[in-house]
Amino acid sequence: MERQTKQRKVIMEELEKLSNSKIHPTASELYIEIRKKLPRISLGTVYRNLEDLSKEGEIVKVNCNSFCRFDIHHEKEKSHVICKRCEKVFDIKQPIKIGFDKETFEKETGFKVLDLRINVCGLCKDCKNKKVSKGNK
């Protein structure tokens, strides 16, 4: 694991704060909050640290088409619901089961499963109920 820099510490603190308020921030949203504590930090540094933290398994990067958000709560087999219109990400309280047998998969493929996540993309309750003009999603 990479050593804990001041920048990384502040990134993790801000991500924790936003995640605890049920917000899964984008790198840009996180950057705005981090600049309040570290005014000289660059957006590139935030992106680089988020990518590193994601690869190290310290945080979760939630991808859906043209955007990604970050979640500090990285329980195994946690799933998310992603709204394709407003791009909000919500935690699913109970795991989604699709009949995936981890042990059989590992035996047949030789691949060791370390984590299993399912992301559901669709429209949230608010977006589903909004009238949309022809030019919008």
Short description:
The mean pLDDT is 83. The strands form 2 sheets. Strands 4-3-5 form a 3-stranded mixed β-sheet, with no helix packed on it. Strands 1-2 form a two-stranded antiparallel sheet. The N and C termini lie far apart (41 Å).
List the main descriptive attributes of the protein structure presented here.
36% helix; 15% strand; three-stranded mixed sheet; 137 residues; 5 strands; alpha+beta
Fold and architecture overview:
There is one protein chain. With 137 residues, the chain is of the alpha+beta class. The protein has a single domain, classed as Orthogonal Bundle (Arc Repressor Mutant, subunit A). It is 36% helix and 15% strand. It has a 3-stranded mixed beta sheet with strand order 4-3-5, with no helix packed on it. Strands 1-2 form a two-stranded antiparallel ribbon. A hairpin with a 5-residue loop joins strand 3 and strand 4. Helix 1 packs across helix 2 and helix 2 packs across helix 3. The chain is flat and about 50 Å long. The protein starts with 5 loop residues before the first helix and ends in an 8-residue tail after the last helix. The relative contact order is 0.14.
